[in-house]
Design goal:
heterotrimer, A alpha/beta (about 250), B mainly alpha (about 290), C mainly alpha (about 290), A: alpha/beta, Rossmann fold, 2 domains
């Protein structure tokens, strides 16, 4: 689905991502873990086109065949089918929850004249789609609140909903449960597992080890820009190298 | 019958309302701090006048004035393609200054500081606009069209994308929006209406010179959109009345005319600072300027 | 050849003046992180202060210069204290500060207009001196003074930034305010200092401008635009870049009007600004933090 080949990115001497290669399989949850500063978020920024790599390839299987997405703009990559949840909350804070979701639904809203002539509106089918997912997430009561007023946990849920509504074939989630309370954490775990059942492909960064190992199919451990181990959650749990990285020497 | 002075003020209010509503689109909705509005206004006025004197059809004059202004609005978005919002203020402020300099210096075309007198008012749809009352109706009609059009934009899905980009551009991009294109359209539309306002101004005053389009003219317009509240079109209309009528008493105090101009500027600048400090959201604003 | 040399001299003089403006602007921007448009207003005010002291009060020339520079610093200090500081306390965003600075620019220009009138004022000091002929090009003693004094100022400025505690603190704040505050630097003191220093440099520029050209209340915006054009060309927020950009601008303008009528000087500056934003948005020195 997504193949990372020999990806490299240096920031003024620091090797944030140093010759990394891995793959994300269709219909599976792949997790990227590692201590702070190990290069996970940089990896996501490279995949989503926010940062351009110094070297390497990112091959993405779209319905028109495999494409190297290195050097493409953020919006192009998104439209090819990668939907990203950011580490910090990045909702449109002056729009309502519903509007946040509606913006994500399609790209018809970019056609100026079509919109002026009233040929593209937030009609029933669009609103229903958004309302349905809000209901599924238990957010039906906050539909018309401004996004800026929400609690942190609610923001994360709304963002996740927005990512799911946005056209995608792969979901790229950067710490979806960091900083949320245990209840929402469990909600999000359920949502992610349900998505997997529905056949979604997910790439995940997470700090919370038990959460990550509990839901993922394949785990990649990064440290200091390099991939140390790749394996199933079982293998990772028993790997001395991983324990060393996480618990210190 | 309404007095002539009152009609004059209403016409000015109408012209400023168009400027303010269109600036609201880029600043309030788009979060694009565009300081070049006065330049687009001037470009519109000059384009209209010069084409009209060439014997070009009235409607083509108006359309060209709007489109040329829109072109420059588009260009300013291109200049900041890869940059933060700050730079838009720099480039648009620079643009309004250089527009003034060009209007002054390109004497073969603009007659420089002498200005262009004798701009005729035309008969439109059988109405003779030489009558100020009729002209007022014309201005109000354009205000209505402008309000309707911009309201249409901001309440459409396209408008939500404009607002989404204001709130978080990277986030909008990662939802697949080509934010650059949307910003271009926003600034161009905003500039288009400023150009139309320029046509109305030129034809109303029947005389234009560069001094009507100095950069300090942006202050009252910015003041209007902040007092009205960013992202509020009705607030903008209301604030236009307030701000245009406010310095009128200065006229009657009996200052010499060389004092009235700067005194009005001082009044506007002071109110701007006070409003920014005490009520940065204005009357109907729902959001803060970031 | 004569014309060429003359143009080089003119470019250097323009560059020297622009670089003083750009320097102050860049210093204030690098610490405060918002665009201080009123910098142009400070220049106008300082020019008129100098005009007032020297031509109207008939104070001694050097005394007038020193007083004008000190008062320029005071104007900068007061603008920060009365206008910007309260805004910062309210956590106003940089855009609010930017608009406020526009208001201050208009206030300063309008006050000068009311007090001194719209007429152009001239300060005759070293005027009417025969220019020195230099391989066929003419350079007046005043122009030599301009170039020399700006060079001296740059050296001082450089030493100030590198060697003094305040200079180092300024650089720390411009790198990262939070970190600077953690190590015990008071950001609000540094903001205030950068306004004082930046405005004093603007004061020097104002004196040189009043001696070299005429002064009028509306010149602030134009000078301001030259200042920030130079700063952007050099890489916004970098003082050495600003100096480099200023000379580039000086050369572009003066060689540009070889072909174009002199009224288009401002247009040349703008076209240069536009081209740089388009093709080299991080400036000549290419410092990366300007992009998102």
């Amino acid at each position: 689905m997504l193949k990372i080949n020999n990806l490299k990115k240096h920031f003024s001497g620091i090797k944030a991502v140093n010759d990394c290669s891995f793959g994300v399989e269709k219909g599976k949850i792949t997790a990227l873990i590692g201590p702070n500063g190990s290069g996970k978020t940089t990896m996501f920024n490279l995949i989503c086109g926010v940062v351009e790599p110094d070297d390497g390839k990112i091959i993405f299987s779209t319905n028109t065949g495999d494409r190297n997405i290195v050097g493409m703009s953020v919006e192009k990559i998104s439209n090819l089918g990668i939907s990203r949840l950011f580490q910090q909350s990045r909702l449109f804070k002056n729009l309502t929850v519903l509007e946040n979701l509606l913006v994500a639904e399609d790209n018809e809203d970019q056609k100026f004249w079509k919109n002026i002539c009233g040929l593209n509106r937030f009609d029933k089918s669009k609103t229903e789609k958004a309302t349905k997912i809000l209901n599924d997430f238990g957010l039906n009561e906050i539909t018309h609140l401004t996004a800026g007023e929400l609690s942190f946990g609610q923001k994360r849920l709304v963002e996740l909903a927005r990512n799911i509504l946005n056209y995608h074939t792969v979901l790229v989630l950067d710490e979806p449960v960091a900083g949320v309370n245990p209840k929402i954490r469990d909600d999000i775990a359920k949502i992610i597992l349900q998505m997997k059942k529905d056949g979604e492909t997910i790439l995940l960064i997470e700090h919370d080890m038990s959460f990550t190992l509990g839901i993922s199919d394949k785990v990649i451990v990064m440290d200091a820009g390099k991939i140390i181990v790749t394996g199933t959650p079982e293998e990772i749990r028993n790997n001395p190298e991983v324990l060393r990285i996480y618990l210190g020497k | 019958m309404i007095s002539a002075y009152f009609i004059h003020l209403l016409i000015l209010i109408g012209i400023y309302a168009i400027l303010a509503i269109s600036l609201q689109l880029s600043v309030g909705y788009g979060g694009l701090l565009n300081l070049g509005h006065i330049a687009y206004f001037g470009i519109g006025a000059y384009t209209y006048t010069l084409l009209l004197f060439q014997g070009v059809n009235f409607w083509i004059c108006v359309l060209s004035a709007g489109l040329l202004s829109a072109f420059f609005g588009w260009m300013s978005a291109i200049a900041i393609r890869k940059l933060r919002g700050d730079y838009l203020s720099l480039i648009t402020l620079g643009f309004s200054f250089v527009t003034y300099a060009v209007l002054i210096n390109w004497t073969e075309l603009t007659r420089g500081p002498l200005g262009i007198p004798g701009i005729p008012r035309l008969t439109i749809f059988g109405f003779d606009t030489n009558e100020n009352f009729v002209y007022m109706i014309l201005v109000f009609a354009v205000v209505f069209i402008c309000y309707f059009f911009i309201n249409r934009i901001v309440s459409s899905p396209f408008g939500k994308v404009i607002e989404a980009i204001r709130d978080d551009e990277l986030s909008a991009k990662s939802l697949g929006k080509s934010t650059f294109r949307v910003k271009c359209i926003t600034l161009a539309t905003s500039a288009f209406f400023a150009g139309i306002a320029g046509c109305l101004y030129a034809s109303y005053i029947t005389f234009i010179d560069p001094s009507s389009f100095t950069f300090s003219g942006i202050i009252p317009i910015i003041l209007i959109i902040i007092i009205g509240g960013l992202g509020s079109l009705p607030g903008t209309l209301l604030a236009t009345f307030l701000i245009i009528l406010l310095p009128e008493p200065l006229r009657f105090i009996g200052f010499s005319s060389s004092i009235v101009g700067p005194a009005r500027q001082i009044v506007y600048a002071l109110i701007l600072l006070i409003i920014l400090y005490y009520k940065p959201r204005g009357f109907y604003g729902k959001l803060d300027l970031e | 050849m004569d014309i060429f040399l003359q143009l080089v001299i003119n470019s250097l003089i323009a560059g020297a003046i622009y670089s003083l403006i750009a320097c102050g602007f860049s210093l204030i921007y690098s610490t405060n992180k918002f665009i201080h448009f009123a910098h142009g207003g400070v220049i106008v005010a300082s020019s008129y202060i100098f005009y007032f002291l020297f031509s109207l009060l008939h104070l001694e020339f050097y005394l007038s210069c020193i007083l004008a520079v000190i008062l320029a610093g005071l104007v900068g200090y007061l603008i920060n204290l009365i206008i910007y500081e309260p805004f910062r306390k309210r956590k106003a965003s940089n855009s609010i500060l930017l608009i406020a600075s526009l208001g201050v620019l208009i206030l300063l220009e309008s006050f000068m207009l009311i007090i001194f009138g719209a007429n152009v004022q001239t300060i005759d000091y070293i005027d009417n001196v025969q220019g020195l002929s230099f391989y066929g090009a003419i350079i007046t003693p005043l122009q030599i003074v301009i170039i020399i004094s700006s060079i001296i100022l740059f050296v001082f400025f450089y030493l100030f930034m590198k060697k003094t505690r305040i200079g180092k603190a300024m650089r720390a704040v411009s790198d990262n305010v939070e970190v600077a505050e953690i190590v015990g630097i008071s950001a609000s003191r540094i903001y205030s200092w950068s306004f004082v220093i930046g405005s004093m440099v603007a004061g020097v520029a104002a004196i040189l401008i009043s001696l070299e050209q005429n002064i009028e209340p509306s010149m602030g915006t134009g000078l301001m635009i030259k200042g920030f054009t130079a700063a952007v060309i050099g890489g916004l927020g970098s003082v050495p870049g600003a100096i480099l950009g200023a000379f580039l601008l000086g050369f572009a303008e003066n060689f540009g009007i070889w072909y174009l009528p002199s009224g288009y000087k401002d247009a040349i500056a703008f076209v240069l600004l536009f081209l740089f934003l388009l093709f080299r948005p991080n400036g000549i020195l290419g410092i990366k933090y300007n992009t998102k």
